[in-house]
Design goal:
The chain is α+β, with helices and mostly antiparallel strands. About 25% of the residues lie in helices and about 20% in strands. It is built from 6 helices and 5 strands; from the N terminus they run H-H-E-H-H-H-E-E-H-E-E. This is cyclic pyranopterin monophosphate synthase.
Length: about 270
C-alpha cells in the first residue's frame, strides 16, 4: 500500500481493485463476424504479411549488371544476345558568357580555325574511341555517327547587361601554389550565360550489334562540346557545358525509349 497516498489508502477496499494478470491475457471484444469469417480474416492477414516480407527481399531488388555477386566490376557478357539495329541520341549545350564568341564562330574568324567543323570531327572520333575511355564498355562496330551543331543566339538586351561581368585581379597572398586564391563555388552563380547564346550539340550514333550505343552518343556529344570550349576559351573563359543526357534510344530488348514519354504514350 506504500504506492497509494495516505489520505486514500483506507478508502479503497482491496477486494474492489481490478485483477490484472502479469502476462498472457486476452483482450475481449465484440464482433458481428462468425467464427468462420474470423478465421478467414486471420488467414488473409497472414498471407498479406508473408507477401510484404517476400517483396522486400534483396533477391527482388534491381541489380547492377556490371558488378558480380561479390561486388567486383566486370565486363558483362553479351554473347547470348541477338544483334539488332540500335540507335542513341545524346544532347548538351555550350553557353557563352559574353557576346564575342558567337560572331567569331558564325564568321569562321576564331583564332584556332573552324570551331564547328573541328568539333564535329572530334565528336565522331570520340564515338569510335568510347571503349578506350569508359572501362567496361564493349568495342562496338559503329555504322553511323552524326554530330549536329546549331547556334542559338538569344538577344540579351532586356535581360542582361550590355557587357560581361568585369574580371578582377587577385593579389598573391599565399605561400604555395594557389594558397591565396578563393576556390570557385560548385553552385551556379548569377551569371547570365544563357543570355549570350549557345551552341546546341546533338550526337546520333547507330550500330548493328548486341549492346546499345548510349555511351558512344554521350561521349560524342561531350567531346564535341569540350572542343568548342577549347577553341573559344581565349575570348570567353566563362563558358558552361550543360544538359548532357540521352534523349532517345532504339533497339534491343527494351525497345524504344524517349525522354519525357512514358511507355503507355508511345
Amino acid at each position: 500500500m506504500g504506492s497509494w497516498p495516505a489520505s486514500r489508502s483506507h478508502n479503497v477496499p482491496l477486494h474492489l481493485l481490478p485483477f490484472i494478470p502479469s502476462s498472457n491475457y486476452a483482450r475481449l471484444y465484440s464482433s458481428k463476424a462468425t467464427p468462420a469469417q474470423m478465421n478467414n480474416i486471420g488467414s488473409e492477414m497472414g498471407k498479406s504479411s508473408m507477401n510484404d516480407t517476400s517483396d522486400s527481399t534483396p533477391s527482388q531488388a534491381h541489380k547492377l549488371t556490371h558488378l558480380t555477386q561479390s561486388g567486383d566490376a566486370h565486363m558483362v557478357s553479351i554473347s547470348s544476345k541477338q544483334p539488332t539495329k540500335r540507335t542513341a541520341v545524346a544532347v548538351c549545350s555550350v553557353h557563352f558568357s559574353n557576346k564575342v564568341a558567337i560572331p567569331l564562330i558564325r564568321d569562321n574568324r576564331a583564332k584556332k580555325g573552324d570551331v564547328l567543323g573541328v568539333a564535329r570531327v572530334a565528336g565522331i572520333m570520340a564515338a569510335k574511341r568510347t571503349s578506350d575511355l569508359i572501362p567496361l564498355c564493349h568495342p562496338i562496330a559503329i555504322t553511323h555517327v552524326n554530330i549536329d551543331l546549331q547556334i542559338s543566339h538569344e538577344d540579351a538586351s532586356d535581360t542582361a547587361p550590355s557587357s560581361p561581368a568585369p574580371s578582377t585581379s587577385i593579389p598573391w597572398s599565399g605561400t604555395g601554389q594557389g594558397d591565396g586564391y578563393k576556390w570557385p563555388s560548385s553552385t551556379a552563380e548569377s551569371v547570365p550565360c544563357k543570355a549570350f547564346g549557345s551552341v546546341e550539340v546533338t550526337a546520333t550514333v547507330s550500330c548493328d550489334g548486341k549492346t546499345g550505343v548510349e555511351m558512344e552518343a554521350l561521349t560524342a556529344a561531350s567531346i564535341a562540346a569540350l572542343t568548342i570550349y577549347d577553341m573559344c576559351k581565349a575570348v570567353d573563359k566563362g563558358m558552361r557545358v550543360e544538359g548532357l543526357r540521352v534523349v532517345r534510344k532504339e533497339g534491343g530488348k527494351s525497345g524504344t525509349w524517349v525522354e519525357g514519354v512514358h511507355n503507355s504514350e508511345k
